[in-house]
Amino acid sequence: MKFILMMHAPSARGGYQIDDWSPADIQAHMDFMARFNQELRAAGEWAAAEGLAPPGQARIVRAGKRGKPEVTDGPFPEAKEFLAGYWIVDVETPARAYEIAGAASAAPGPRGVPLNMAIEVREVMAGPPTE
Question: In angstroms, rounded to a whole number, what is the distance separating the alpha carbons of residues 93 and 115?
Fold first, then answer.
């Protein structure tokens, strides 16, 4: 079963709070993420993972006239959270996906204090079986 684990980060002045972290705190956070991803790879559960650019760089795209895309600025200003990154994991049970999400939520923030960010867990839909 594949699940997407989406890390939702709180907005801070329209951006991600990491902008205010010390270089040492940022490095500790990145080291945690690298180790975490390596553990998932070693367990055969890692399918994909990416951190995302800050919301200020996001754009909303809709189909426009004559098939041309209409591009507007990203997340609405009233958004209290934004998608900071995600993992796609391939696990045997939903319970295992929840365990992984809980571990990801504990990524360190300033002074090593766990961030306890919300991680949304959703099963990746599969198409009908092929014969």
Answer: 25
Residue 14: per-residue pLDDT: 46
Higher pLDDT: 4 or 19? It is 4
Quote the CA–CA distance of 115 and 108 in Å, as a whole number: 6
CA-based R_g, the chain, Å:
17
Tokens of 72: 């507007």
Residue-averaged pLDDT of the chain: 87
Instruction: Spell out the residues 6+ positions from residue 120 whose beta carbon is closer than 8 angstroms to its own.
Output: 5, 6, 8
* Residue 5: exposure state from Cβ atoms within 10 A (0-12, 13-18, ≥19): buried
pLDDT beyond 80 at 87: yes
The span from the CA of 51 to the CA of 33, in Å, is 10
CA 65 to chain centre: 33
pTM score, whole prediction:
0.81
Q: Which domains does the chain have, with CATH numbers?
A: 2-123 (3.30.70.1060)
